Amino acid sequence: MQLLRFISLCGLLAVMSKVSLAQNAEFRPGVGLYEGVNAQGWLFEQLQINEQPPHALVRFSIVDAFTSGSVVEFSEEQLQCSASECILDVVNPNWSDSRIRLIITPQFDQGLRVLDITTHQEGKALSSNSYLLLKQAGESTVKRFTEQHIAFYKQFFEHNVRTDEAQDGHYGPWLGILEQDEKRDLVFLEFNKTGRSRFMRYVTGTAYTDEAFFEAGKINEAGNILFIRTSHNVFANKVLLHRNSASMINGYLFSELQGNLVQPSTFKLRRFEPRPPGNARFIIRQQGE
Asked: Where is the signal peptide (predicted)?
């Protein structure tokens, strides 16, 4: 009987030890590319975790159509992790008197929740915001976008065309951020005076793109407000645009399915205006071309 109790006690201690180890196991992002939209900063964020350091934090400016940004490489030791979170503290490449402090926690479906804090060198917080990074198994969303819309980049880089000079009103290419609940995606609007226009959504962390087309005859205009009916049966078959200024549009989209509204989302767009050609090399370098 005592032997059985001893064996049972040993088994219980072994189970408790395993549970304790599991509870104390260090959280660390797995190898791969994590990407997401920082809506407050108008940045597309990428966290690249490699099998061997250095790792990298890459930030693309959405306002400049990804032709400007920053890259910070960091070592394994700079990513300090515990059972619940990882902390990355690096010098801000855009402002040497400040630092970037990321507090990274695990999120559903291999995602990462990031609290992004900009601090003085002495540690005082200057600003903060949060966003979600999702693991990207394929090529990055920025690379897909730039490859698909290379014609627009060439128009700017080869002919030095500025959209505010070449286009008027709401016409021309626009790039921005779509928000649905906590999820944020890139959106692109190609608004043509004649022929077919299109509205595109790049689903973060995936290879999926939603695309809805519309003709001039499907647009109702009242002042700075446009109501558009698209040809898509599910995604954004109704779009409402409000042009705030020459370079900014606010919008609302939803789909009507059997009399019910589904997928309501809001978005903000800025005119598609890449930086001068000298800065365009940034997107090429960071996408491995």
From this structure: 1-22
Q: What is the distance between the alpha carbons of residues 17 and 22, in angstroms, rounded to a whole number?
A: 9
| Statement: residue 1 has pLDDT above 60 | no
d(CA 141, CA 170): 25
For domain 163-271, give the fold: Lipocalin (2.40.128)
The three-state DSSP-derived secondary structure of 11-71 is HHHHHHHHHHHHHHCCCCCCCEEEEEEECCCCEEEEEEECCCCCEEEEEEECCCCCCCEEE
Quote the pTM value. 0.83
Reduced to 3 states, what is the DSSP secondary structure of residue 197?
strand
How many other CB atoms are found less than 10 A from the CB of residue 138?
11
Tally of CB atoms within 10 A around 46: 22
- Tens of pLDDT along 12-36? 444 444 434 344 578 999 999 999 9
Contact yes or no for 236/253 (Cβ under 8 A): yes
For residue range 234-280, list pLDDT tens digits in order: 677 889 999 888 889 999 988 777 777 777 899 999 998 887 655 54
Helices and strands (H, E) in the chain, number of each type: 5, 18
Of the candidates 113, 83, 88, the residue with the CA atom closest to the CA atom of residue 99: 88
3-state secondary structure at position 170: coil
Contact 217, 197 (CB under 8 A): no
235 phi/psi in degrees, rounded to 5: -85, 120
| Model pLDDT, residue 261 | 75
The full set of domain ranges for the chain reads 32-136, 163-271
Preceding amide of 29 cis, omega within 30: no
Residue (of 62, 204, 235, 31) closest to 131 by Cα position: 204
CB 96 within 8 A of CB 149: no
Q: How far is residue 46's CA from residue 35's CA, in Å, rounded to a whole number?
A: 4
